[in-house]
Each structure stands twice: as structure tokens, then as C-alpha cells.
Amino acid sequence: MSTPSHVAAHVHAPPQGFLRKYIFSTDHKVIGIQYYLLALVAVFVGLVLSLLMRWKLAWPNDPVPWFGDGPMLPEQYLALVTMHGTIMVFFVLTTAPQSGFGNYFLPIQIGAADMAFPVINMLSFWTTFVSFLVMVAAFFVAGGAPISGWTGYAPLSAVGEIAGPGQGLGQTLWIVSIAIFCAASLMGALNFIATTIDLRARGLSLMRMPLTVWAWFITAILALLAFGVLLAAGLLLLLDRIAGTSFFVPGGLVFTDKPVPHQGGSPLLWQHLFWFFGHPEVYIAILPSMGMASHLLSTFSRKPIFGYRAMVYAMGAIGFLGFCVWGHHMFASGMSPYSAMAFSVLTMSIGVPSAIKTFNWIGTLWGGQIRFTTAMLFAIGFVSLFVTGGLSGLFLAQPPVDQPLHDTYFVVAHFHLIMGVAAIFGIFGATYYWFPKMFGRFLNEGLGKLHFWITFAGVYLIFVPMHLMGFFGQPRRYAEGTAVQFLSAMEGPQQFVTIAALVTGLAQLIFLFNFLWSLKWGRKAEAINPWRSTSLEWTIPSPPPHDNFGGRQPVVHHGPYEYSVPGEPEDFIPQDAPPRPAPATGD
Amino acid sequence: MPATVIEELERAAVGTGGRGPARRDGGDGDDARRRAKPPTPRSAYFTGLVLGLAAIFMFFIALASAFVVRKGLGGDWRSFELPGLLWVNTVVLLASSLVVERARRLLRTQPAARFGAWWSTGSLLGIAFLVGQVAAWRQLAAQGIFLATNPASSFFYVFTAAHGVHVLGGLAALGYVAARGAAHQQSTGNLSADLTAGYWHFLGVLWVGLLLLLTFGR
Amino acid sequence: MQTKNRCAGSTTTAFILAFFLVVFTLVTVYLFVSKTWWFPETITPIGHEIDVQTQRTLWLTGIVFVLSQLGLAWVVWRYRNRGERARYSHGNNTLEVLWTLATALAFIGLGVLAQFTWAKIHLAEPEPDAVVIEVLGEQFAWNFRYPGPDGKFGRTRTELINSGAGNPFGIDRSDPAAADDIVVPILNVPVNRPIELRLRAKDVIHSFFVRELRLKQDAVPGLEIPLRFVAERTGDFELVCTELCGMGHQRMRAPFSVKTAAEYEQWLRDELALLQSNP
Ligand code: HEM
Ligand SMILES: [Cu+2]
Ligand SMILES: [Cu+2]
């Protein structure tokens, strides 16, 4: 920390007036909630899109609600696929766990009054918001939303309307939205890192940071390095579309019988740039949930994290290796077979730190006294999902084994479990855990458990069959299986999955109801530390005052997970409790 | 039944574990809750600057690797003579950096005589750089070399434009510092002058890197 | 302080959760062991190798899957809150090192093993006597070009591309080598002969996938990508597109047949005759 004589002159006085307090607020807590609510809207939009897709897949020739009297058209289906994937990845998985919870709790958990740059923080949220509006606008322009998937492969995404409906203005808006999102994420990442480096409370050494803070910190580093690359790629793609350049579009292309005037570009170049961002992005989605799940597992088993250091190193290794494995998305792309080998072995190695984390989570539970709160149930569910989703990655990481499975439902099952559902479970767990701190009231535990059981069973019923459908050869991004003969055998499983998805989807209304109801009528969180947790947010009122610690400067004396320390009267030691004289056994 | 765990935990917490009195009201009413936040330490601004530069660097690294890959595809790549004016512009930009640096150092003495003059000169040189870049564009355009003419020219325009946009941002920052004056700087530990100068030097170095890439990678 | 009530609540939840995990594990294992839905039998030697490597991976991941999920079920049940004090432990470095080494060995070992199969598919020397066929993907159809009796593909020109008029390749029929080039919408290959497909695309990326071959390869505009195999068994199969290529992606299929040498030669002769009867 710097000496007081060198501080800047800005003092962040508490804001007055509704607009400054709740809309254009620079308070990290308000911004965190704004991000969370944005993600909540986005996740329900994305969910509805996915259910419409599922409906079409199960009953391809029947009308789908809101899609007229005839069957849904394939291009409409593909527009749904694209928007579903994009909205979920960017506006839910990148937004809620990192920008939402991270914004709210990172400063508090490190004992700071706010982020390092509150104004940039506010800008970052509103930029994200604009990005979301631009993305959704793609639905309402001529030609509709783009149909090239969330990966936007060139040349499909690069040549305009000629490639299909939605590839005109819709695709342009998609690229613009993503570019805006990149800028927003860079601002956010910068803030997170600087805050963690410079604003930690006295005594809070790196190795005393809660794993949540580590996760947000590493995620922010990934985001800082990855989003600039996506921005560059998006810029080049946009130029190919509107300025007639040829970065990604090769020469001699003929659509139906119309040639397009490009020459010499490389479709694989787009894939390299995209996945150089895209693979770190999947860790950006999952790392915060790893951190939050670790935090919950320790808290509710009343045990220190098993292998804290190993957990930190594993996250670091995942972050680093995450930049070295992007080619595993391109084994079938025509990339050099030698590169494929290197990417393959590197990818197999990234399985190691992931496995280490799993073992440590189980080790944390081992010997614990598990309290099955809803938050804990979601954290345990997270571990189970992470194992299931991670193991399928070992198939996809080996080029020959990947060959038949690539771009089938096996991949869909893999990435949904590992990055979609596992991350969502982390978010749910964190919501049940932190809601009382954020809003001063509890979510209803009964509804919470109902929500958990249906969701946990539901996601496995949806995605386990998809692995086998992939092993049957069901290609992904197919609007229907009616044209391909062997796919007639997939009719039954498609319907089964759709029914499971409809039930699971409906069950999310329980959560929505619980959330809204509890805001107003939930049981009051009387105690400031109802879960008897150790981290700093549980030493301040719920919700916390404007400057978090009410003028106090917390000093940290303990590691983050001092549960059930022998000889202590309580089974937890808050991080800022006075130092204990005798045996400091902690590592 | 389902809520029992919480209730138990909470009872325990209220009894022993929890600290401080239970809060009654959730509004922002009472004054203790509305204390101003402490300022951000100076070190955080420099961390932020370095991080921002890292992000910008990654952006240009991505473009540069696209350049190398695209060029490697051979075939349609037609190199063209870079306008000699670019070298003049480079000198102007580096000179601007030096002048701004000199101005920044002047701030260390009280009172900072002639800070304004030096700093503004540096800023004007920055503007001159941009004008020069546009002139170089116009020279190329006069030869019929446009953005979409050829991948070589596409990259040239992308690099110069992307760098130029960052220079515009830098000029805005330079202008801000100039407008607030030396006294303001000195009363704030020279924070914005130091940050702006750091950013400005980075843009100079970045430009030299890009120019070398364009020259030798052509 | 520890009431009966809390323990009872814990016990029920722990039981349901552990039970759920066990049932889920068993059902999943059953589905994978019985191969409820699975690829049809492969028709190539390389397909067999891929299947073997897949099977190895199934074993390894299966063991880890069962141990982890059942382990999770076990700790959930065994360490439910019983009103005692949790064990105070920060971990065990020996264990960390052990399981790091064990997984590294298993995962990376498996990964290295896979590369041998991969090398056979993509790094083998081309067979000089291979049957060479051009495959061209377009929105939304597959086209195949056979060189005809002269064994040479004739010249093509972009300006001549006209799928409507039956010339998706843009073949320049004025080139003598092009006169006998056969263009068809179905893929026929002879059994037990090395085949070399040359994948190209006319507009966007498509992907060549035949389940029985266990091969998948993108056809990328601007590139020509070879794909080699030997089919050991005759039969009729389906080729589908597995790279999102636009609104007709899901109907971009073509019949794929492996024929006996005699049938194959006969089919080529018929096609040639057809070509020469209406040039
Ligand atoms: C009930 C929940 C969900 C259901 C039923 C569902 C269903 C689907 C379906 C049917 C597809 C299209 C598969 C294809 O044809 O290729 C898909 C794609 C996708 N989903 Fe989900 N999904 C759900 C939740 C999520 C979540 C939470 C995420 C967050 C990561 C997510 C991310 C994606 C992505 C990235 C794609 C790929 C989109 C693309 O191909 O461009 N999904 N989903
Ligand atoms: Cu990846
Ligand atoms: Cu296709």
C-alpha cells in the first residue's frame, strides 16, 4: 500500500439522488448487482431460445409457439442457436460470476472500500449493457439474427447476405456487439487486477486470499489478454464485410452461381484468432465458479480447503495452459497434423490441474461436517458436473478419437456440462450464499432445494443422453434430422431430451420467483454472519454500508479457511480476528 | 424442515459467532453508512496503466500475427513502397515523447516554470504526427493504393488507423493535462501527467515496432 | 447445542444426494457399457484403431468417473453433519504429489498413444496407385469428380462454375484432359483399394463425415485437403455435412457406397457413356 502523501485527490463521496445512486452509480456493490440483473435477464432470454430450439428438434414438423402456423424454418432455428450460444457465453457466463459477484465481493473480501477505478467500473457496466442491446437488436433487423453460430466462422460470417438470411445486417450487429463487449471486458479486467494488486487490506498476503479472490484475479488476467485478440479479429472480420478487404475470405468463391470479389484470405486465420480467445474464454466462464464452489465447500463442511496452495497453483496452471491449447477446436479444420499433435498433448496436460482440483474438493469434504444448505447442494452438484463434463474432454482432446465426435452432440454435451451448467451451478450456489449479504434477506431454502433437485436431475437427463447421441453420429447445429436417413433413429432421444429440457427450464421459474419474492418478503438476515464464514464480507452489515467497512480498515491475521481449529471456542476464525498466540498451524 | 439448517446456524450465529448488533433498517438513511470512500492509492493508477498497455499490446500482437500468417499465404501479396513521410512522422512522434518527458520532469521543481509551453509543444508535435499520417495516407491514395487494394495495403491502413485512434486518445489526455495546468498537477502528485506521459511513450515505442514490422515484413 | 433435528435433516438430504449420485453413476455407466446409441461398425482398418483408442479412453475416464462420483457420494453420506467437530487439516502434500503424478502419467500417456493413430491417418505416405476423387462442398450439396479413363483431372475455371447447368467444378471441357471427367452427386469407391479424396469447398466451410469411416474433415474454401482411407467392406452408407454452412446445413447429405471392383468399373463405364451421349 502506498504512503498517504502520495494519494490522488479524488475522494468518492456517497452519491446523492436516484440516478447517481442506482443507475449511473460508481459503487462496486450497485454495479455488481446491475451486472447480476443483466445476466439474469440474459439467462432467461437464452433459456427461452433454447427451449424453442428443443421444441423444433423434438417435433420438427409441428408449429412452435410464436413461430407461426407452419414448422419453424431451419434458418430460424440457426438464428436461435447463434443467439442462444452468444447470449449465454458472453452475457451470462462472462457476466454473472465475474463481473457480477466479482464486482460485489472482490473489494469486500480484500478489505477495500471499492474498486480501484470506480468510474471505469461504471463505464464497463454500461458498455456491456449497450453491447447487449445491440446483440438483441439483431433479432429485429431485416433478415433477422445471424445463423453462423457463436463461433462466427468465416467465410459464412464474412461475405454478407449472400451466405444466407441473417448474414447481412444481423451478422454485422453481432460483430459490433461483440467488439463493444470486448472493450467493456477489458475495462473490467483492468479494474479487477489493479484492485487485487494494490488495494488489499493490511495482512492480506496473496496466500491468505480466499480462493474466490484468486479465481476472479486469474480470470481477469485471462480476460485482459484474451479480449484484445477477439477485438482485433472482430475488427478484421468487419472490414472484410464492409470494406472489401480479404483477411478471411479466399479467392474464387462462388455462392450458388454468383462469384464474390475477394481474394487470398484464410478462413483458418479466423479460427486461430477466435479460439485463441475462445479457449481462455471457457476458463473465464468456469474459473470464478471454481472459486465460489471451493469457498462454499469449505464453509459448509466446516473444514479448511484441502490443499489451498495446490488449488491456487492449479488455477494458475489452468490459466496459463489455457492459452496454449486453442488448436484442440481445430483438429478437423485442415490445420497441420503436426500442430494438432502438439495441441493434443498440451490439452491432455490441462486435464491434470483440473483433476487436482476435483481431488482437492473431495478431500475438503473428507472428514467434514457437511451442512446441506441449498448453497452447499449446488456446490456439491458443481463438483459432480465438473467431473462428468471434464472427462468427456479427454475424448475430444485426442485428435483420432475427436474425429468422429467433433461437431456432434457429444461436444454439445461436453461444453454444456463443463462450462454451461457447472458454471451456472457455481452462480446458483453463490446466489444462495451471498443473497443475505447483498439484500439483507434470505432466499427461501425450501424453494431453493426444490429448485436444486429438479435442476440437478434435469441437466443430467438432458445432457447424458446427448453424449450417446454424439456417439451415434448426430451432428450439432442441425435444425432437423429429417433429411438424413440414419438420423431417424434419433427421434426418440430428441423427444426425451426436449421433455427433460422443458421441465428443467420451467423449474427455473421457481428460482426467479424465489429471487423476486425474497427481495421483499424473504426472512430477514438478522445476524451479519449467518453462515459463520471466515471471509471479510461477513464482518460487516447486510447490506454493507456505502464504504463497506464504515471507516474501519480491516487488518487480516488469518488464512481464509480457518474452520474447526482445535482449541478454539468457535468452529471458525474470521480473517480479521485478533491473532492467536500459540500454534499457527496454517500453511 | 428444509429451513432448519439455516435457522440453527443462525441461532448459533446470533448467540455467539456473529459480531456486531443486528441491523434494523436496510436503507441508506443513517450517516454512518454514508461515509465517503478513501481515495485510490497512486500505485493502483500505475498498475492500471501497465495493464491497459498490456491489453493494447495484445490487440496489436493479434493484428501482427494475422499479418505474418496472411503474408505467409503468399499468392496475392503485393508489397508497395511505404511513403518516406512515415519516417519523418516517426521522428516527430519520438520528438514529441522527448518534449513531453522534459515537461514532466519540469514538474518536479517548484514552481514548474514553462511546463505549459513544453507540454503543449509536445502535444502539438503529437498532432503533427497525426496530420503527417493522414498525409501519408493521401499519398498512397493518390497512387491508387487503398484499404481493399491488397492485403499488404489492408494491413498498412489497419495498423496506422488503429495506432492513430490510440494516439487520439493520448492527445485527449495531453490536452486535459495542459488545460488543468502545472499547479493542478503538483497538487495531485503529478498523477495525470505521469500517467499520460507513460501512455504517450508507449505509443511512440509501439509505432516504431509497427513501422519496423511494416518495413521488414513487407 | 447440536439438536437431533439438525442431524435428522442432514441425514435425509445426505442420503438422497448420495443415492442420487450412485443411481446417476450406475445409469450412466450402463448407457456407455451397453452402447445404447453408438456408431455403426467401422469399415476401415484405421476405424478399428480409432475404436480401440476410444475404448481405452472409455476405460480410463470410466474408472475416474466411477471413483470420483462414488467417492463424492461416499463423503457426502459419511461426513454429513453429525454434530461433531470437523477434522482440522490443510491437506496432505504426499497425496497431492501422488495424484498429480498419477493423473499426469495417465492423461499424457493416453494422449501420446493417440498420436500414433493420428499419424497413420494424416502423415502416411500417399499410395501411388490410389483412386483419386475430388470432393466439392457447396451450399447445400456434395459434388464428386472422377478423372475418367485418362486418370487426369481437366482444367477448371472459376468463371465456368455453374451448378445450375451441372458444372459446379467449373470444368473447362475444351481441355482434352477434362473431356472424360465425370461429375456426380454420389460417392462410389471400390473396396480394398486405397482411396484419396481431395476436399474442396466452393463457398463456405463444409465438413465431410461418414460414420463408418470414423473420419471427419473440413472442406475449406481456398484449400485442397487430402483424406485417405481403405474400405474393407462393401455396402451403402451416408455422407453428411458437419460444419455449419448455412440454412440448408442439415440437408447436405450424399449417398456413399463401397462397391466391388467389378461393380465399380461398371458404374464408371455407365457414367462415361452417359457423359458422352449428351456432351
Ligand atoms: C436448459 C438449458 C439448455 C438447453 C436445453 C440448451 C440447449 C442447446 C441446444 C439444443 C444447442 C444447439 C446444439 C446444436 O444444434 O449444435 C445449444 C447450443 C449452445 N449452448 Fe445451450 N442449452 C442450455 C443451456 C446453456 C447454457 C447455460 C449455456 C452457457 C454456456 C449454453 C451455451 C451454449 C453454446 C455455447 C452453444 C453453442 C451455440 C453454437 O453452436 O453457436 N447453453 N444449447
Ligand atoms: Cu478449448
Ligand atoms: Cu453444412
Molecular structure report:
The complex is a heterotrimer of chains A (587), B (218) and C (279). Chain A is mainly alpha-helical and 587 residues long. Chain A is 60% helix and 1% strand. Chain A contains 15 helices and 2 strands. Chain A has a two-stranded antiparallel sheet with strand order 1-2. In chain A, helix 11 (374-396) runs antiparallel to helix 13 (409-439). Chain B has helices spanning 4-17, 42-72, 85-106, 115-142, 151-187, 191-216. Chain B has 218 residues and is mostly helical. Chain B has a single domain, classed as Four Helix Bundle (Hemerythrin (Met), subunit A) (Up-down Bundle), CATH 1.20.120.80. Chain B is elongated, with a radius of gyration of 26 Å. Chain C folds into 2 domains: 2-81 and 95-122, no CATH class; 131-277, Immunoglobulin-like (Sandwich), CATH 2.60.40. In chain C, strands 3-2-1-5-8 form a 5-stranded mixed β-sheet. Chain C has a 5-stranded mixed β-sheet with strand order 4-10-9-6-7. In chain C, a hairpin with a 2-residue loop joins strand 1 and strand 2 (141-146). The relative contact order of chain C is 0.13. Chains in contact: A-B, A-C, B-C. At the A-C interface, helix 3, strand 1, helix 8, helix 9 and helix 10 of A face helix 1, helix 2, helix 3, strand 7 and strand 9 of C. Bound molecules: protoporphyrin IX containing FE and copper (II) ion (2 copies). One copper (II) ion binds at residues 279, 282, 328-329 of chain A. One copper (II) ion (CU) binds at residues 279, 282, 328-329 of chain A.
